[in-house]
Amino acid sequence: MKILITGGAGFIGSHVVRLMVNTYPEYEIYNLDALTYAGNLENLKDIEDQPNYHFVKGDINDAAAIDALFAAHGFEKVIHLAAESHVDRSIKDPLAFVKTNVMGTLNLLNACRESWKDDFNGKLFYHISTDEVYGTLGEDGLFTEETSYDPNSPYSASKASSDHFVRAYGETYGLPYIISNCSNNYGPNQFPEKLIPLFINNCIEEKPLPVYGDGNYTRDWLFVIDHARAIDTILHNGSLKETYNIGGFNEWKNLDLVKLLCKQMDEKLGRRTGSCETLITYVKDRPGHDKRYAIDASKINSELGWEPSVTFEEGLSKTIDWYLANTVWLNHVTSGDYKKYYEQQYS
Ligand code: NAD
Ligand code: TYD
Questions:
Q1: Neighbours of 160 (CB within 10 A)
Q2: How many other β-carbons are positioned within 10 Å of the β-carbon of residue 11?
Q3: Pocket residues for ligand 2 (CB within 6 Å)?
Q4: Is the pLDDT of residue 347 over 90?
Q5: Which one from 53, 134, 155, 217 is the annotated catalytic residue?
Q6: Which domain does 146 fall in, by range?
Q7: Is 84 exposed, middle or buried (0-12, 13-18, 19+ CB in 10 A)?
Q8: Is residue 94 domain-resident?
Q9: Residue 88 covered by a domain
Q10: Which CATH number fits the domain that encloses residue 51?
Q11: Total tally of structural domains belonging to the chain
């Protein structure tokens, strides 16, 4: 089986590629990635020489190149992760998100439609989406697969739009698809623009920890390897035209999470208890900041038997250990353009 994974050099994509390459030596895994600021081949060093792994540098916005790639390889399945993924960047440059997340997805859908037109049997377009398409929750309730879409940021609006197009291609052209909507991921290899790796890096460097607003925003956190396991499960056992919500039943208010992170960082860095917490700094809130995300993951649990494998405390500890052991990786990704981004976002 030939599988195309888009965005495989990014955070979640690299864990999905690794899992697929190592678990299924009989599959040919093609990783298509444009290597934007978020894509990094260092994430895949341990598997790059495996005979069933192939890297293709390419942009999903380049329709002709995507068509040519499909014509050359005739992929049977696509796991589509390539995207612009950071909410703060989407607030500064929404168009970049429409281009890649909406138009890029359409280019892939068109290529699948053309390549698979004679026989949809055994084919699958598996679209990786986010719980942010559902908008925000109040104090109570959970996002289910039936929750209406109500996106609030340019990022979530672009992801919602791509989800709608995937579904529309299923209804209109019969394209076989599955969508999964996952909660916030954390773990090794996450670019330090997102909350957890940014704060780990700032603790190491003893820089301020910029908490947006009052810090009373809630996210539902899932260890990235558990997300990759869920994607594997859905790819093999999910039903066509279905949506699966993925989450860890693991809600944290940002401030509580940051305090736990600081406690673990103090222990691991051998600092006095409370040292990292003194770095917490309240900064201007994010515009349109969603109050609370929380996923009801009972469908994937009851229908497909998936559940998270690590607790949050364990996952966070593993994540910090990874960043402390991979300072070369961290130094590479925080040099150059990252400095400019950081100044613009936090100065
Ligand atoms: P990421 O930003 O770490 O990685 C994105 C990858 O896509 C990078 O390797 C980048 O080079 C590549 N890419 C970007 N634009 C491209 C283009 N035009 N053509 C080809 N490749 C391109 O993102 P991530 O956090 O790993 O997220 C992966 C997917 O999972 C996204 O679709 C995102 O919406 C979704 N998701 C993320 C989270 C999360 O918490 N990070 C949660 C749920 C869903
Ligand atoms: P983030 O990791 O950007 O994920 P998302 O916005 O997709 O949920 O942010 C997680 C939470 O942390 C969110 O409520 C915003 C908050 N946050 C901060 O308080 N400070 C920061 O510097 C960042 C990046 C995020």
A1: 22
A2: 24
A3: 87, 184, 194-195, 198, 210-212, 217, 219, 254, 286
A4: no
A5: 155
A6: 2-189+221-249+289-309
A7: buried
A8: yes
A9: yes
A10: 3.40.50.720
A11: 1
